[in-house]
Structure formats: structure tokens, C-alpha cells
Amino acid sequence: MTTTTIDPCPRCGAPCYDLVNGPGPEDDTAKVCMKDESRFYCVTCTCPREDPYSCNSPFFARVLPTPESTKKQLYNSITISCDDRRKLFQRRPDAHSSLRLQWITQLLRAARQLASAKAQEAADLWSVDYMFWIRLYGVLDDIKPFVTRLRTPMFAGDAAPRQRFEGTLQAINTVAALFTDDELLYIQYRRDEACHPVAEAYELSQRKDGRLVEEKTKTLLVRPVKHDDYDRAVEGVIKRYKPNEFAIACDFARRALPDLEALIAEALKIFA
Ligand SMILES: [Zn+2]
Ligand SMILES: [Zn+2]
């Protein structure tokens, strides 16, 4: 019986036994590096025996690098220590899962109250109004990129995209698509007003070399917006509602409510 060894181990450089093209070492108790089509098992692994997240387990084995591997994928399959790697797996994807669910349920709850509110209830519902903007912005600006990251494969060779997270991401995109660019800027403006007593991001500022920064750099449109354009967008939305800002909250809530119900149904599948 012959033993084929091809290529050095990507992690430690020792000969890596190819389990697809050969039978592995003659002495099957020998400690050697091995690989199959997509994964490899390295003798430098220090994962404790029986650890379910071990890089010697079939589910969490280190992925073989490919020419297309990104720097981060290479780091995560080769360089990272066993301890850090297991921490990473254990952290994803469930940490703070209940907090994210809470933001979405509170958004839904605020939207339900506002959607059925009457104009004269504005004074009673002032705190619900604020909660609505803060939670809506949080879903669009924090939870969306978070779910996008979950959906993106972490390791080279993982199937892409990770379908489990697709439904929630689609549902958030559907909510975002209900609003025009000007309305998205208004959502951000109301949230910033609710969260920051000093609104520096809306002021002119200067770079270190003295040049003026005349735009708000981080916006829900995922591009910088000049302060003047931002003001025009917000004023335009307010004017349309003649200017009754409580009516804006109620109308946005009414428009979003069906899609927020759909979002919570999806979110419950991945967060608990
Ligand atoms: Zn090795
Ligand atoms: Zn390990």
C-alpha cells in the first residue's frame, strides 16, 4: 500500500496527507496533518478533545485556502490560534440575539400604536414617537449590516450566501425600500435628535488641515450628503405634512406596519 503526500500543510508546513487521493499514513494512529477536498486537519491544533468547536471536528475543520481567499479568510483558516477560533465560532451567531429581537419587537410595538393613533393623541404618545424613530433607525443602520455579515461566508469554501439569514435581510430591505431618500434622511434626523443632545454631525466642521467638512458623512443613504441638501430633504418632508411631525410618525408607521410584521416573523427564525 502506498501513501500519497501532496503539498505541505497550509498551517504548519509539515507533509499533509491527502485523504482523497491516498489512504493516509500506514500507521493510522500516527499524528500527521491531513486534508480532504476542502478542509484540513493540522497536528498543531491545540483544541481540547471532545470540544465541539475543535478545528479537528468534521464541522469546524479549517478550510483549505484557495487562490480566491480573502486576507480575512486566510487569517481565519491558517493564522488564527485554536483558542481565538473557537471563541469566534461560539460568539457567532447568537450573542445578544435577544437584544436584537427586542429592538425589532419594540419597533413593531411603537409602529402599531402610532398606526392606529389619532391626531389628538400626540401629547400622550410623545415617547412612543421617539421610540419609533430610534428603533427604526437601529434596524436600518445596525441590524441590517449585522445580518448582512451573518449571511456572508466567513471562511473560503463555505457555501455562499448563508441562506438562513436571507429572509431577515430581505425583510429589512423591504422596509427600507418603503421610504424615499429624503424620508430616510428624515428618519435619521429624528433619531439623531432623540439620541444626541449635541448635534455636531449637523454642523460645519474642519479637517486637521483646516479644510471645511460641509457634509454629513454617515447617512442612511450610505453616502455623504451636503448639509444644505440634508436640510432641504428634511424640510421637504415636514412641509408635505403641513408641518405636523406627529402625523409623519403615524404615516410612516402605517406604511411600514405590514412589512414590520413580516420582519418579526423572519427575525424569530434566527434570533431568540
Ligand atoms: Zn499542519
Ligand atoms: Zn484547533
Structural notes for this entry:
The structure is a single chain. Helices cover 48% and strands 9% of the residues. With 272 residues, the chain is an alpha+beta fold. It is elongated, with a radius of gyration of 26 Å. The longest helix is centred in the middle third of the chain and has 26 residues, at 126-151. The strands form three sheets. It has a five-stranded mixed β-sheet with strand order 1-2-3-4-5. The chain has a two-stranded antiparallel sheet with strand order 6-7. A two-stranded antiparallel ribbon has the order 8-9. It is built from eight helices and nine strands. The protein has helices at 71-79, 82-91, 97-115, 126-151, 166-176, 181-195, 227-240, 245-270, and strands spanning 5-8, 15-18, 33-35, 39-41, 62-63, 205-206, 212-213, 215-216, 225-226. The protein folds into two domains: 16-90, no CATH class; 93-271, no CATH class. Helix 5 (166-176) runs antiparallel to helix 8. One zinc ion is lined by residues 9, 11-12, 14, 33, 42-44.
**Which stretches are poorly predicted, pLDDT < 50 over at least 5 residues?**
none
The number of helices is 8
3D shape? elongated
* Main sheet makeup: 5 strands, mixed
Strand content: 5-15%
User: Average pLDDT across residues?
Assistant: 89
Cα radius of gyration in angstroms: 26 Å
Distance between the termini: 53 Å
Strand order of the main beta sheet, please? 1-2-3-4-5
List keywords for this structure.
binds zinc ion; alpha+beta; single chain; 272 residues; five-stranded mixed β-sheet
